[in-house]
Amino acid sequence: MNDVLFFNGRWTTTDERVLGVEDRGFQFGDAVYEVFKFLRKRPILAIDHFRRLDRGLREIDIRNPWNESGFLRTVDELLDRTIFDDGIVYIQVSRGEGERAHFYPDNMPPTALMYTRRFKFPDEVKKELGIRLITAPDLRWKQCQVKSVNLLPNALAKKRAQRKGADEALLVGDGEVREGASSSFFVVRAGRLITHPLDEHILAGVVRDRVIGLALAAKIRVDERPLREAELFDMDEAFITSTTMGVMPIAEIDGRVIGNSRRGEITTRLQRLFDDLEMSEMSQQRRETTVSDSPPRRR
Ligand code: PDD
């Protein structure tokens, strides 16, 4: 494994053990992360991801080591240095490294890293057949709008799904259906979309936001409201959205077949529209960037 790694202003590979044991991301989960996709070495919706990263860092009072253009420039350089064309970029910014203590000093220099990874995106067969979900209790913290690295409840829920032969866990709290363990969740009922509103119970998915925009532009109504668990099976279609899955139909939830067991009509439309949007991002020209906005070099 020798993927290209940006670490605090320098370039190395993931073979190098760069992180200190007293990094607060490692010891306290005191960090936020992002995942975005690249196709033919072009970043997909990277600005949307940067903006969410920036919001998350602000919420937990960590300094963002990048401004927007510095971030995009680092991404371009990362992709230039990467030997494969398609994959994902993982980014993490932690509060930084320092003697382990719950009280942290103000204004710690953050740890910033970014690396590429090969990724097998779903093929046409998978995109047609869809995936299976189980429902699981939402055991996460109460600030799910922050994309923090505290993913233990998500990982446990997903493992539970896998053990039951499913692909994703649908998190339910206070009788309301929230989102997938690593995806946003949509239902189609009577030609309309229903999805949880943006609040502290869900992550503001980048694909969720784009899909809502595409739906509205296509004159499909969108109700952003919590779905009661009791309503879960009263639907025509359902799908999840995420960076790695795009728009992915749901074939089954808790062993019950959704809709007429085939990819629904609205799901298919939105899947195509979103795939087209990704293609147009991919074919966008590279921006010209300036040299003055790179993050400070440390270590
Ligand atoms: N997960 N909700 C949760 C809890 C997520 O972890 C994710 C993404 C999403 C979808 O967000 P987006 O559309 O911005 O990818 C919703 C990423 C892919 C991950 O953790 O790997």
Describe the protein in words.
With 299 residues, this protein is of the alpha+beta class. The protein has two domains: 4-118, 2-Layer Sandwich (D-amino Acid Aminotransferase, Chain A, domain 1), CATH 3.30.470; 124-281, D-amino Acid Aminotransferase, Chain A, domain 2. It is 27% helix and 28% strand. Mean pLDDT is 95; it is low at 290-294. The protein binds N-(5'-phosphopyridoxyl)-D-alanine. N-(5'-phosphopyridoxyl)-D-alanine (PDD) binds next to helix 6 and strand 14.
Topology overview:
Blueprint: E1 4-7, E2 10-13, H1 24-28, E3 31-39, E4 42-44, H2 46-59, H3 68-81, E5 87-94, E6 111-117, H4 124-129, E7 131-137, H5 152-163, E8 168-173, E9 176-180, E10 184-189, E11 192-195, H6 206-217, E12 222-224, E13 227-228, E14 237-242, E15 246-253, E16 256-257, H7 265-282
Parallel strand pairs: 7-8, 7-15, 11-12
Antiparallel strand pairs: 1-2, 1-6, 3-4, 3-5, 5-6, 8-9, 9-13, 10-11, 10-14, 14-15, 15-16
The structure holds N-(5'-phosphopyridoxyl)-D-alanine.
The site of N-(5'-phosphopyridoxyl)-D-alanine has 14 residues, from helix 6 and strand 14.
